[in-house]
Amino acid sequence: MTDTMTSLERIEATIHFRKPDRVPVDLHNFQPAARATGLPMSEVFQNGELLAEAMLQAWRKFGHDMILLENGTACNAQACGLKVTYRDDMAPAAHDPIIKSLSEVADLEVPDPYTAFPMNEILKATRILSKEIGDKVWICARADQGPMDLSGQIRGLNEFMMDIGYGEEPELIHALLDYSRRVATRYAFALIECGGHSTSIGEPLGGPELLSPRHYKEYPWRHEKAMVDELKAAGIILHNHICGNTIPIIDDFIATGAQVLEIDHKTDMHIAKAHARGKTTLLGNIDTSILTYGTPQDVEDACRAAIDILGPDYGFILGPGCAMGPETPDDNIHALVESAKKYGVYR
């Protein structure tokens, strides 16, 4: 069947639970896209022009409906003052927390995305993509890590988990989460101003594999919801990504109000669909291991199963459950995109 909608129309209809012509496709492919340039990833991820060109080349090759633009999970952390190591063969990593106690939160300043590196380079990439293909493809410009994840980087993961576990300074825990929310929110506004159609945060530290459902509701949930509410009031669509099996928190996850929830392969599709139907759009949840190490037929089979379960009544975007590995084969990416056209048509 020939597409009867543009990518923009298809994504917009899906997010608002209207009938699209078919299931849209997202590629969380910043690593394979950077690798395909032949340049060291460390160069691509620090240069907005190179990053934009990498994403453009990938879009021209695969023809997906949504570009998920980012340079990894360390952008906000670096803008806040953390040290970041840029690696030639994978995404950058942040290290060395910048506060030794929660009481230091009051001294932290929210960075200006237009001047703080590397936020300013991602804004540059967003502007380039918006100018070149913003009328053809949906650009989700990721506001990097959300309240929980950025807080864990700033404080140190072990220390922050112990802070939450002991629960002796809840006001200061919330103060750090609120600071991290303000960092991501300010960045999100800038990304939309530069041409993004939606934005996204990653919150894997908030998932049940690391944080209890009770602590999720008590701490990061209210800050994720506050971020959604502020952006939604300005007409901005926010995606929320939590890794692992999110079923133990699925109702609270949905109740953040995020218009798109990015789920990975460990989340039961039947349960997620039953709870999310008519409330939020689900994006995912193809196993990145299958995408990297499986055959194109393996990918097609996984996509068909996901479409069968998550596609009915709309509200579903097919894509990887998390970031694709750098060595994901082109044939498997083609299989992912083509599966939506083969199995995802709404009649």
Task: Give an account of the 3D structure.
The mean pLDDT is 97. The protein has a single domain (7-343), classed as TIM Barrel. Helix 4 (48-62) crosses helix 6, helix 7 (147-155) crosses helix 8 (157-166) and helix 9 (170-193) runs parallel beside helix 11. It has helices spanning 7-15, 30-36, 41-44, 48-62, 75-79, 119-133, 147-155, 157-166, 170-193, 213-218, 220-233, 250-255, 269-276, 288-293, 296-310, 330-343, and strands at residues 26-27, 66-69, 83-85, 93-95, 138-145, 198-202, 238-241, 260-262, 281-286, 316-320. By secondary structure, it is α/β, with parallel strands linked by helices. Strands 1-2-5-6-7-8-9-10 form an 8-stranded parallel sheet, sandwiched between helices. It is built from 16 helices and 10 strands.
Shape: globular
* Neighbour order of strands in the largest sheet: 1-2-5-6-7-8-9-10
As a percent range, the share of helical residues equals 40-55%
Indicate how many domains the architecture comprises: 1
Q: What's the CATH architecture?
A: Alpha-Beta Barrel
- Report the order of strands and helices: HEHHHEHEEHEHHHEHHEHEHEHHEH
Question: What is the residue-mean pLDDT, rounded to a whole number?
Answer: 97
E-strand count? 10
Which value, in Å, is the CA radius of gyration?
19 Å
Strand content: 5-15%
Query: Uncertain spans, ≥5 residues at pLDDT below 50?
Result: none
Measured between the Cα atoms of the first and last residue, the distance is: 10 Å
Main beta sheet: 8 strands, parallel
Helix segment tally: 16
Classified by CATH, the class is Alpha Beta
Secondary-structure content class: alpha/beta
> CATH fold name, please?
TIM Barrel
